[in-house]
Structure formats: structure tokens, C-alpha cells
Amino acid sequence: MTIALTPQEHAKIEAHIQAHKNKAGALLPLLHAIQDDISYVPEAAYLPISKALALSVAEVHGVVTFYHHFRTHPAGKHILQVCRAESCQAMGSEKLEAHIKATLGIDYHQTTADGAITLEPVYCLGNCACSPAVMMDDEVYGRMNAEKVAALVKEARCA
User: Fold this and answer.
1) Can you tell me the distance from the alpha carbon of 118 to that of 77, in angstroms, rounded to the nearest whole number?
2) For 78-158, CATH number?
3) Which of 75, 108, 112, 144 is deepest in the core (most CB within 10 A)?
4) Can you tell me the distance from the alpha carbon of 74 to that of 111, in angstroms, rounded to the nearest whole number?
5) Cα–Cα distance list, 26 to 33, 50, 57, 62 (Å)
């Protein structure tokens, strides 16, 4: 399903394309800029990106879908990432992620019905000594458990 873009989103995407189109290796920085600005890389942006960078639409789509970091749908107000690397798994992240999914009522790459939280996997937060770790927006938290995650979610929803 293609998501209709607002005129503001079209303008932002076009501004990013213009800022990046003449740079070597522009695709990844361009995709990051778009996602940082509007929270995802919409399918509607693939054609103008492909034209500006002399790539096929399939190449743009391939890069967006290859990297777990890129989202193809709007994100919630807050992004909750659960580390799935070996150290975190050894310290109970699989049980924690199951609890988070059940509590929020969503799976990875989904957003809660109220639009507050998008849940994403991440494959290392660099916080192995404090496993299991999660990241809420841009803040990393270690030694997490169900109660600590519930407090983070509650705080995010109240913000």
C-alpha cells in the first residue's frame, strides 16, 4: 500500500534530493536525511530519488529494504529498539522482547494503535556490559527488565 504524501513531505524530500544529488555515494546519506526528517522513506520517494541519482527504482527499493534501519511506513512518536545481539540474548532479551510485544500488542516494525511507540529490533547498541539493553528514541538503557521498560513506555506516552 502506497502512503499518500503531504505537500510538506514532498517538499522536504525534494529539498533533500537537491542537497544530495551531486554528491558521490549520495544514496545512503539521502535516505538517512529523508528518514530523519519525516520518520520513514516513503515508496513515493523512490522514483524521484532514482531519477536524481541515475539509479533504477529497483536499486533504491533494494537499498531501503536491505537495511533494517530504514522504515517504509511512518513511525510512532517514539521509537523503542530492543537489542537482539548475542550478549543481550544471553542475558534475557528474548524473554524481554516477548513481554514488550505482548504488552504493546505489536510486533517488530509496527506501531501501537495510539501512534505513541514503534517497536524495532536492533543488532547491537554497544552496551553489552549492561545487557539486556534497549534504546528509546536516542537514549540507551541497560540492565533492562519488564518493569523498567514499562516505566519507559509510560514516560514516553506521557511526554
Assistant:
1) 8
2) 3.40.30.10
3) 144
4) 9
5) 10, 11, 15, 15
d(CA 124, CA 134): 10
pLDDT tens column, 101-158: 999 999 999 999 999 999 999 999 999 999 999 999 999 999 999 999 999 999 999 9
Whether 45 contacts 80, CB under 8 Å: no
- The span from the CA of 123 to the CA of 68, in Å, is 9
What's the angle, vertex CA 9, arms to CA 121 and CA 113, rounded to 5?
A: 45
Cβ-contact 114, 105 below 8 angstroms: no
Domain ranges in the chain are 7-66, 78-158
